[in-house]
Amino acid sequence: MYAARRWWDRNGIRLGLIGLALGSAWLIRQTQGNLIYEVYRGIASPFVRQPVETTVPKDPKVQELEQRLIELQSQNRQLQELLGYVQKNPGNDTVAPVIGRSADHWWHQIILGRGQQDGIQVGSIVSGDGGIVGRVVQATPNTSRVLLISDPTSQIGVTVSRSRNMGYIRGQSANRVIMEFFDKVPDVRPGDVIATSSYSRLFPPGLPVGIVESVNLNKSPAPEAVIELSAPINRLEWVVVSSNPKADPSQSSSQSSQPDPAVEADLTDASLLGGNQ
User: Cβ of 273: how many Cβ atoms within 10 Å?
Assistant: First the structure.
C-alpha cells in the first residue's frame, strides 16, 4: 500500500495531464473545433466592437434615376451598333425608331418615327443590325409603315451566296423563313449564307438575309430550307432606312403586289398599300 502511494505521488500529475490531453483531443474531434471557437468568441467579444448593421432605404428619386441610366445605356449601345452599320454602308441612310407594333401582327409590320420629311419613300429598304428586315410600303410626312420579311405575304427572291442557287423566301410569322428553290437538286447545306437575288424586283442584290439552318431536299413540289434571319426582327427598336434603286413610288398598289411568275414571287401586302392610304 505504501509503495502504491509513493508511485501515485510520483506519477499522478503526469497521468492526469495525459488524461486531460486525450480528453481534450477527443472533445475537439467530436465538436469539429466549435467548442474552441465559442470559447474564443466568449473571451474576445468584450474587446471587439461589433458592427452595427443598418439598412438605409434608397430614395425613390435615386432608384428612378438608376433605372433611367440603365435604359439609356441600353439604348446607347443599340445606337452605337447602328451607327457602326451606317458607317460601313455609307449613303443616304436614316436611323429611325420603331414607334408602333401591334401584338396581333408582331411579325407582320412596324411603324417608324420617320417619314417623307426625312427622305423616306415607299419602297425604301429597312435593315436591322445583321440584315434586312423589310421595306417601306406607306409613308407620311412623319411616319412610315414597314412590311416585314417575316410576314407570310412577303416573298423575296434570294440566292445561296456559295453556290448561287436561287429561290424565294416566304415569311412564317417567326424569326425564321422558308426558302423554296427553283432547282430540283440545289447545292445547299446548313450554314450557307442567303442574300437577296439579282432577279428580285423589290430589293437590290446582295443584301444579307440569313443563314441556312436545315434543308429538306425531299419536299414536294420543290426542295425547301429553313433560314434563320440575321436581323433580330423579334426585338426591333431602331432600324436603318436606305434608299432603294429599284423602288418606284409612282407604282400603284395593285401593280406592286403582282408577282413575276417567270422569275420569283416578290409580293407586298396589297391591303397595307391600298387600304391605308
Answer: 21
